[in-house]
Amino acid sequence: MKKMLQKVSLFLTMASTAVMMLPVNMCYATTPDFEQVTQPVVDLINSILGPAIAIVGALGAVYCVFLGVKFAKAEEPQDREKAKTHLKNAIIGFVLIFVLMVVLRGAIGPLTKWATGAK
């Protein structure tokens, strides 16, 4: 009985999905124009990315200076090693975030062309 209910439930789910997708498939009988959808998203990303790079750079510099001071003040070898590890990880993290933001800024043009189907 339980297996039969699972099969009926699966069938109803598949049937309802097919019925809901029917209007979507009919709307895209021709090639869709994604430029109206992608342009606002690209504009939003471009407007946020510049200030975000500046904020990440400033926060990274302040945090690394804070960790550097903590490293310099550490008297115990264990505290010094811990501060050194934290500083190294912070530098790696901020460089990685910064590089990914710059890559996103460079890749937004080709990604937009790909999404809109432009040559």
Q: Quote the distance from N terminus to C terminus.
A: 56 Å
Strand share of the residues? under 5%
User: Number of folding domains?
Assistant: 2
Structural class label:
mainly alpha
Q: How many distinct beta strands?
A: 0
Instruction: Tell me the quaternary state.
Output: single chain
Shape field: flat
Topology order in helix (H) and strand (E) letters: HHH
Mean of residue pLDDT values? 78
Helical content class: over 70%
Radius of gyration: 26 Å
Mind describing the biggest β-sheet?
none
What's the structural blueprint in terms of helices and strands?
Layout: H1 2-27, H2 35-73, H3 77-116
Helix pairs in contact: 2-3
